[in-house]
Amino acid sequence: MSGKASSSQSSVGLSRSSALSHVYIQYPPLRCNVPGSRGLFYDDGNKSILSPTSDQVFSWKTVPFSPLVAPTSDSISEGPILSIRYSLDAKFIAIQRSDHEVQFRHRETGETFSQRCRPESESILGFFWTDCPLCDIVFVKTSGLDLFVYNSELKSLQLVETRKLIVSWYVYTHESRLVLLASGMQCKTFNGFQLSSAGVIRLPRFDMAMAKSEANSKPVLAAEDINIVTVYGRIYCLQVDRVAMLLHSYRFYRDAVIQQGSLPIYSSRIAVSVVDNVVLVHQNDAKVVILYDIYADSRAPISAPLPLLLRGFPRFNTSVSQSSREDSGSSEANVVPDNEAVIYGDEWTFLVPEFICDVANKLLWKIHLDLEAISASSSEVPSVLEFLQRRKLEANKAKQLCLAIARTVILERSPVPMVARAMDVLVTSYSHSVKTGSYLKGIKSEKTSPCSVPHVSSPRSGADASASRVDALEKSVKHASAAGVDNEYASDSEENPSSEPPKTNLSDLQIFDGSNPLNANGSEEQEAQLTSPAISPEEMYSFVFAPVEEEIVGDPSYLVAIIVEFLHSANSEKVKVHPNLYVLTVQLLVRNERYAELGLFVINKIVEPSKEVALQLLESGRQNFQTRKLGLDMLRQLSLHHDYVLFLVQDGYYLEALRYARKYKVNNVRPSLFLEAAFASNDSQHLAAILRFFSDFIPGFQKTSDHNTYYRILNEMNSSIAA
Amino acid sequence: MGMSAATTAAEGIKFCIFDLRRGQQEGQELDKILFFFPADLPFSAQLSVIGLSEGLITFTRIFSPAAACEVIEAERHSHVFYEAEPDIWMVMVVEKNESEAIWRIDALRKVLKEVHSLFLMFHGSIRTLIEKEPAGGLIRSHLYPFIMDYLSACQKRSLLDNCCWDFLLGKKLQLPSFRDCLKERGTVQMLTVSREAAIEVQSLVRVLESFAGNTQFYSLILFQDLLVSTTLSPVDTINLFTYAVLRLTPRALSSGVSSWSYLRKGSTTSNVATGSILAQSASVSEQNFRSQDTSPPGGVNSHHIARPLQPDRWSKGKDGFLVTDIWGAEASGSTSATPTIWLQQTEERVYVCAYQYRSLTLILLVPVASILNGEQGVLVVKQQILENASLKMFQIEEKLSKGWAGENAYHVSGYRYLLVDGDRDVSRASPPGKVTTLTKESLLALSKVREEVDLEKGRMEHDNAGQEKDLEVCIRAKNNAWVIARITKGKELYMVLEKANETVLYASDAVEKFSNRYCNGAFSLD
């Protein structure tokens, strides 16, 4: 997506409601077309699309996603290809040639070897590479799992462990490191293993729910009915129940699998994607997509079902912006095949987590959320803000939207309780992000992405990522990593008991690779640099309160009410508020001449004391001397003795100032200030007292010109009195 | 409650209100009198008091046109003057030289001021009422019950309270004497709250304000008898606070069942007796007024004179709102009319909605002009309070109750003090129960010192406009107690240290310590 162009486009699209949608794919797609291709394979371990020909395999990186990425190629030997995956260290290519054989090829040397199974008793269902310390590659066979390590001396695989199970079919995603093995008549009994860098975790066997159709025929669960999704660091399985027309969800804990409830479905063909922790349920027949934010208990969709939008397609996009027109022009001739624009075509395959592969046209689309459209579709401001605050992928856009929403609700003078909840959402989110360190991470380290939490044994997460972490992060994050909490959301579950099933000793299966790639770098998008949409109190002041204060018309007491609510939230979250906000509060109260209330604010320390506030009180106190006194008192209580003395002199209390200066040893005030003040009051006794004071306490004062001048003046005053 | 045993006979204390613009022709002098206590004094005696006062006023005006006399000290009497409104004077004559009747003039003037302020709040200005009905019946019929209710406001602020809120016991007036020198009338007492609680209170205040829409509602929140928050101007805050403590706070409401009720009963009967003469004259003129009234015959209520200071007329309804029939009942008769008061700052007439949850009292003031359909609109506001504010009130009450150390919360051991912040009209003092432990000598000494300080304050105000002077008095009383007064930057501190060391250094250290711990160092500037 090319940054600004698309956002401006989307705002145009919004106003023309014909193209209303919450999810879109951006034209142009990644074209994975090579002559002689034998199909497309998705290697989710390496996040690349593979297209083998008879003697070569082409590989396109999908992360960072760019339609212009050039493929790399490797030569392979001829033969049938059932599946193909690069090893995680990218040294080997593994190709499943048949039910009984997987062939390995060393990419540099070109050496090959094969691993076979006993053809009479078992067949290979598939395989995947793993970063589990126990093994390098796992074969899933009808008789169970075989775990192998690669022995570089022998140049062959060595079996390290076998798990004997009957397997009908399996589902694996590298993202979750979770393999689910289906068995039984209806294929609804599951064994699960998580093979992560922390070792192998075996999940308890569980059955999935299947409604019976009216006849005796029992439906059989198919692999495409099972979707493993990871959101907010939790692993779920979404299972389609075609008879009940429900999508059942299960959450995986280390020692339990718990059904979480069901979502209705409206299509016989369902696909599930996850974009930025939002679950997208594609209702293929209806050609609409429903969004769920499975964070709290709520199973309500974020918004109404809406179609998936193809953006920037040259044929019907007349308002296309300059930049994307250039894009399309350069990549393709003017003739664009119509079938490319078919949404939810039969040939679409949904890849974990957020890609759509158009097998027929050899295209790869990346799914994007339209945060603006989503936030515009709901009037429930607090929940929209909550939703936006949870977004990581387009953190900057989410943040800007949050700021805009906050400004709007205040300018529209929405009911105070509603704005209060909105403020609370923002402050709580900020406080949370500071605790987990993601806020500082976003500010300080520009190139690490939030979810890519490196762990030591991952070969590719590399030293660079962890190094950047060390210099960038605060202690809290180090603590987190030291404790082995690899994902910030892991701590979420403890803080939100409401979203937790009744049992308390459950701990989530952890994820060892976020939805973001480990090797994402700053090149993807500017926006990706900001990793958290959290808004600091300083930003709340600069981008919400200050601009709103300029724009808001009429009685400013409404704004004071909102600031009070903001302070309320900040106080309960122990978030420090910028003094500028207090200064603004003082200004607003003064503008309404609500001096008595201002006094309450200051005395009860709702407005926390600071030099800025004190100076504002002194300034505002020009119309109201009680307020000025509050400012003076604040200076004194802050021990800003020098300023205090200066203001005392300024107000004519020069004798008091002198006594105070003596008591608190304020030595750097110019004597001339006091002398001038005493002279101005035309009181010779005072002038004499001050001269005497400085003569006594400042060595050498009697030799200064000040002393001489005022001594002469004093004599003149006295002689005139005498005369 | 250590009531001072002054046997001030009715002729001992006199209290009158008169209008200099009236009755200037011979034979019409009686017209001047708007109020006189005791009412059964012969008119000739009343006129002689007023004649003397008028003479003094006229005389002193020659020297000081803007501010005529404040007090005349005669051999046996003190005459305390207060010009409540232009040419409308309140004069109190008190007898001197009795053992307990040792008055501080400024305290007496504050009584006059308070009566008038409260009258303004409930009935508007005296002048307006006079102009409404030049015969004077209207104003008299308002003033008489009002002031008698005020004087008989048999209200104790606590069981241990030594303060004489009940001015009238039988025929005896109990005025603030030297025993009340650690109190300051015309100030509010505030609850010290944590920042967290203060923010929650402000949040509640803003929610209440948001009910108003385009107009402005005002609110006052009390915890026990202490002010927590106000959005009113200082003068209105003082008035409403005074009234709330007298009649609305939980303690004021529960006083009806206390053992003190017999006193009040006694005083009301005597009211009837003493007030009969003036009441008769008032009723006559009231009838005149009625006959002249050209307004459509609206009903009984049009001439119903509310007596807001009448005791035991408020009660807490089931819904938490405080109700009273003082302002009469609606035509339907089922519900009482919502009370209304005048705000001095904005000269608005506002409905008073008082809601109480345990120790927390919320008073919401709704401008009459902002509500089109009268009582119906008030009901809507009340509903809003129940729906949107009551939950917050519960939380605040809980929080404040947790942090509340009880009656003696502001006791500082070893000290008997009064702290007045003149800029904000706030005072705080040692709890009355602790003040009673002081000896009479100490109290007399402090009263004397305060008298002097009052004079000095008056002089300072006169001499240095805009400049505040500091003042420090520290004396050793006959009983070896230290009596201290300090004024710094508009803040006043009065203190009695009885069991103190004999050096003045000790006394000044004690002040310094107190100042640093309880006044943010306001009195330890040098």
TrEMBL record, chain A:
One of its GO terms (biological process) is regulation of autophagy. Signal peptide: none annotated. Residues 40-157 form the Regulator of MON1-CCZ1 complex N-terminal domain. Residues 523-696 form the Mic1 domain. It comes from the Eukaryota. Residues 446-532 are annotated as: Disordered. GO terms for cellular component: late endosome membrane; lysosomal membrane; Mon1-Ccz1 complex. InterPro entries: RMC1, RMC1_C, RMC1_N. This is Mic1 domain-containing protein. It comes from Lithocarpus litseifolius.
TrEMBL record, chain B:
Residues 15-124 form the CCZ1/INTU/HSP4 first Longin domain. One of its GO terms (biological process) is vesicle-mediated transport. It comes from the Eukaryota. Residues 284-295 have a biased composition (Polar residues). Pfam families: Intu_longin_1. GO terms for cellular component: Mon1-Ccz1 complex. Residues 284-313 are annotated as: Disordered. InterPro entries: Ccz1, CCZ1/INTU/HSP4_longin_1. Belongs to the CCZ1 family. PANTHER family: VACUOLAR FUSION PROTEIN CCZ1 HOMOLOG-RELATED. This is CCZ1/INTU/HSP4 first Longin domain-containing protein.
